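Hi all, long-time lurker, first post. I run a small reading group and we've been trying to get comfortable going from sequence to structure in the token notation. Rather than ask abstract questions, I figured I'd post a concrete chain and ask someone more experienced to write out its structure so we can walk through it together at our next meeting. Sequence below, copied exactly:
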Amino acid sequence: MSPAVPEYSGVSFLEAWFDDVDNSHPEIAALVGQGGAHAADGARGMFAQRNGGNHIRVYLIQRAPADWIHQSGLAAADTAAIRARLLESYADWSPQMQRLITDNDGPYVQRPIFALPVPHTWEHNPTVTLLGDAAHLMPPLGVGVNLAMLDAAELALALADSTTVDEAVRAYEQTMLPRSTETAKLLEGGAEHLLSLDLPDHSDAEGDDLVRS
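-- Answer (accepted) --
Happy to help. Here is the structure in token form:
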């Protein structure tokens, strides 16, 4: 459908999980609360999120090569060695915050952040289209899953209301492509905001609502 290739943002996430948090990690559960918590010092960041099933997911955020674990001579499965390297990087952070590095259950999961070029468009095909991340991969700032669900709903409605698949695909793309381009421009480089000491200033009200959602 498209020759576009996602580009690495220069920001890498390392995912850590905490299980049975209210019983096994009560201090971390209290720190994160029932929603999420975010901290950054300009070069490093952490984002913690309460999930279902009494789990908390934490992203440790740094500017680094996409394969920084391998380039550091470490193995992805060597949790102890990665943890030691992270503690060096976050050495100036408080002991309370460092527990988000040291107390996780299980291995870390490396998640380098990629995004599709903006705008991302393709030549119309009468029977095939794209939606969700395949259409508009963006930094993970709380927008992607919402747009994917909206894409799916609008495409389903277009298919139900149109006489041909081609007509439905055209109607869907005429709405989805401008919306995704506008949102992608708003969030372009947004992974850097997770490291910043300042909150991003989104002057567009509609985009601001998307980020908060």
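A couple of things your group might point at:
The radius of gyration is 20 Å.
The longest strand covers residues 7-18.
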